[in-house]
Write a structure and sequence with these properties.
Helices cover 39% and strands 24% of the residues. By secondary structure, the protein is an alpha/beta fold. It has one domain: Vaccinia Virus protein VP39 (Rossmann fold, 3-Layer(aba) Sandwich). The chain has a seven-stranded mixed β-sheet with strand order 3-2-1-4-5-9-8, sandwiched between helices. It has a two-stranded antiparallel sheet with strand order 6-7. The longest helix is centred in the N-terminal third of the chain and has 14 residues. The model has no long low-confidence stretch (mean pLDDT 93). The structure holds S-adenosylmethionine. The site of S-adenosylmethionine has 20 residues, from helix 2 and strand 2.
Length: 257
């Protein structure tokens, strides 16, 4: 479904990745902290779903500094590529890993991806930066091997709706269903604002469907009891804002074989 102001929103969202050129080092610093939710909840859950990656090629879109790909290559992944707009990459890269400065919203423009196919394609907290999510997923799908899958994670949309409802003195429902773009200051660097388009869970499901993908698994990872005891402020945050949703997506074309 196209909303009347889709054109304007895409223009705004085309710029959405730009702050990352400055934000990336702060994000990585925060991610490396012992109490970061990426370390405590997100990466362990993402890694568990990926399972045995021996001999598998991985394409990580919006890969940050590439640190997660380094782990996967050490765990046996091969011929893997990370793409990120920030260009803020780890210096120490194992053989079999290439990190490229590029835009995930225009995969056809990245020469290193031409003629390539991957076993796993990752969008880990990066999918919100494409102005045209269906097009981006279709492009990613075209880079998947026949039995490959996409692992895509997004922040629970309730989190943004709740934050905006508190900020604007509105209600959860008004913000959740608003369909507008909004800017917010991430906790990684208060001086840098990020722009997102508000979305609902139905929006996500419809995007997957329009791109010709089906959901094999969805997960909403939580803090372990032990981690919650060690980091009560993170438990309080998770109890309020819920965390992320993880989707394992496969091409509908696979089922036709
Ligand atoms: C929240 S971070 C997630 C990083 C990493 N995937 C992780 O899980 O730690 C979002 C990443 O998306 C990248 N990004 C934002 N817009 C992008 C774009 N248009 N193309 C490629 N990368 C982009 C940012 O530079 C940043 O590294």
């Amino acid at each position: 479904m196209t909303r009347p102001d889709d054109q304007d929103m895409r223009g705004t969202l085309r710029e959405a990745g730009k702050p990352w050129v400055h934000l990336a080092p702060d994000y990585e610093k925060a991610r490396a902290r012992e109490d970061s939710l990426d370390r405590l909840v997100e990466w362990p859950a993402q890694r568990e779903i990926l399972g045995d990656v021996s001999g598998r090629s991985v394409l990580d879109l919006g890969c940050g500094n590439g640190g997660k790909l380094v782990v996967l290559v050490h765990d046996g992944a091969v011929a893997s590529i990370g793409v990120d707009i920030s260009g803020n990459f780890v210096a120490d890269r194992p053989p079999g890993l290439e990190l490229i400065n590029g835009d995930l919203s225009d995969l056809a423009a990245i020469p290193e991806l031409a003629q390539r196919k991957f076993d796993r394609i990752l969008f880990l907290q990066s999918f919100g930066y494409t102005p045209d999510p269906v097009r981006t997923l279709r492009e990613a799908k075209s880079l998947l091997k026949d039995d490959g899958y996409i692992l895509l994670t997004r922040t629970q949309p309730i989190r943004y709706a709740l934050e905006r409802a508190e900020e604007n003195s509105t209600s959860l429902g008004e913000e959740y269903f608003s369909g507008t773009t909004f800017s917010y200051r991430s906790g990684w660097n208060e001086r840098i604002a990020l722009t997102k388009r508000s979305y609902t869970v139905s929006d996500l499901l419809n995007i997957f469907s329009a791109a010709g993908l089906w959901i094999e698994t969805a997960a909403e990872p939580q803090l372990s009891e032990d981690a919650g005891r060690r980091h009560p402020h993170k438990l309080a945050w998770m109890n309020k804002y819920l965390g992320i949703i993880i989707f394992k997506l496969r091409s509908l074309d696979q089922t036709k074989e």
